[in-house]
Structure formats: structure tokens, C-alpha cells
Amino acid sequence: MKDSFGRDIYYLRMSVTDNCNLRCVYCMPDGGERQSGEDALTIEEIAEIVRASAVCGITKVRLTGGEPLVRSNIIEICRRVAETSGICELCLTTNGILLPRFVSDLNAAGVTRLNISLDSLDPETYKKITRTGTLDGALKGIYAALDMGFDAIKINAVLMGGVNDNEIFELLELTRKHNANVRFIEMMPIGETADWAGTRFVSVSRVLDIAPELKDVGADGVAKLYKLPDGLGTVGLISPISSHFCPTCNRIRVASDGKLKPCLHSSDEIDLRGLSGKALEDAISAAIFGKPLKHKLDAGETSGSARNMNQIGG
Ligand code: SAM
Ligand code: SF4
Questions:
Q1: Rounded-to-integer distance, Cα 46 and Cα 49, Å
Q2: How many angstroms separate the alpha carbon of residue 39 from the centre of ligand 1?
Q3: Are 281 and 86 in contact (CB under 8 A)?
Q4: What integer pLDDT is reported at residue 33 of this predicted model?
Q5: Do the beta carbons of residue 230 and residue 176 sit within 8 Å?
Q6: Considering the chain, what is the average pLDDT of its residues?
Q7: Percentage above 70 pLDDT, the chain
């Protein structure tokens, strides 16, 4: 359905858990006590929210987290979402570590596309960023997804000044040999990690400074797309801070505890828990209609949303 500014809202990003097997420095605070996973929506609640969203015009769903692959019954959740009448596309965003175990079942359950996070190709830097992960584990996940034949895998790299901005060329070089889309994303200062993120902002325009041979080949959703002259895959630039894409925003988000966020960077939330049937459909359509025109997050400012990314899903 259209929101009050005429934007077609057809994309739901659904966080199925705030729990994660990594704790990336820009996403979660250090320490184990914050990962509860306890108040996460049940499978039935997720299925009912997706059904009601489809009635409101949602056709594409992305399951995210936290790490969706640590959520119990994730395959069953995927199957239920994929079977929902009106849902044409089911995507999943993962850090990749558990993909070797799950990739075949995800494929069978109806997941059509995978986004995998990979911020560094250097084992030490990867460890520093994720605090608990290994580069080898993430790469095994990416190769498992490629072997499974997932179409045009997206590899997401968040740019961090002084941390991984010296690896831009190596990361985009992955597109020379692989039919993958390596996407550079501007880091957003949000939640408890906002101070850390705010001081390390790097604009995605840096990618074009480093690789001026990249050719503009159009856009895919919020990403501007480029290609190396002899590249198999594409390079995507996502600039939530330096160049807002709010005028073409097409999405809503539901956090793992059932709060609907019409805008990532607003503190406005609508509690969907306890609602079902027509009441749920009405709440979702009102939230879509009430989406704000734009967020106010620019370089040097902090998001209006107090939540951490692992609760919202990115
Ligand atoms: N655990 C999965 C993963 O890492 O891919 C899915 C959840 S994660 C919150 C989704 C995406 O949000 C990831 O690509 C991650 O890099 C990105 N993200 C997390 N915090 C961010 C921040 N402060 N700014 C920009 N992107 C962020
Ligand atoms: Fe976990 Fe993804 Fe957040 Fe990293 S970005 S801590 S993998 S939820």
C-alpha cells in the first residue's frame, strides 16, 4: 500500500531474535547480559504478523536479527513465511557463521536470497570487529551459499574509519571473480554503540575515490550499483547518512519483541503483540500510512532510535 507521501511500501524486515553468536562493535554493546532472546515473538506471532502485512500490501520479507540462524526453529519460520499468501520474496540476512549447517534447509524452506555480512578479509580485524567470530567461519558460510547456487549473494561491509577502510579495494575485488554483490554501507550511530560509530564515519564516496574504474550500472533498491570493467559481480554503495534515500523508502521493520518501527531512526514504535486478525491489519496499515517523510540523521548526529541494531535488524 502507499503511505501518506505516495511511497509504495511493500518490504517488511522482521527481526526474529535479538540474540547473536557475534557481537559486532557497531551493533551490540560488549557483555552477555543484553542478549536475552526471551521476549522474541513466537512462530505463531511471526506468521500472523506476516499474514496481516501481506494483506496490507507487503510482498517481500527479510528475516534478520540479531542472528536469525541462532533462532530456534528458524527453518520452520522460513517455511511459514514463504508459504504466506501474497509473499513473493523471502530473504535472510546473516553473519554467515552457521550457513554451512543451514544453507540447504534454508533453500528448501523457500529462502530466495541471502545477504551475508563480511566487514574484513583480515583475520585479526575480523575478530576485532565481531569480538567473537572467525574470518574462516564467515568465509566457509559464504562459500557454502555460493555452492548451494543462491542467486546473486549480497555481501555487506560496514565502513569504519581506521578499522577496515584500508580494505576497500580487497573487498570490492571479490566481485572480479564471483557473481556476488559487495555492498559498502555507511555506519549509523544508533543505540548504545552510537558514540563508537559516530567518530568512525566514512562516506561510501571513498569507494569511488579508491576505485575510479568502477562503472555506474544503475541501482538496486537503496544501493547504487557499480561494476569493475572485467568484474563478474557488482559493487553496491548504500549511503543512509551522506545521501538519504528516504524519498524512495519502501519498508517497515518489526523488532524481535513485536514493536513495529515505521522508520529505522525514529523512536516511534507500535506494539503489535496481542493483536491479530483485522485489529492487526488495521495497526499495520495505520503504521504504514503514518511513516514519516524522512529521518534526521546526518553525519555527526545520533539516531533518534534508542534501540541497538541487533533488536531492530539493520
Ligand atoms: N546478524 C546478521 C548480520 O550481521 O548480517 C543480521 C542482523 S545485522 C543487525 C543486519 C545488518 O545490519 C548487517 O549487515 C550489519 O552489518 C548491519 N549493521 C549493524 N549495525 C549497524 C550500524 N550501526 N550501521 C550500519 N549497519 C549496521
Ligand atoms: Fe550480530 Fe549481525 Fe549485530 Fe554482528 S551485526 S552483532 S552479527 S546482529
A1: 5
A2: 20
A3: no
A4: 45
A5: yes
A6: 92
A7: 94
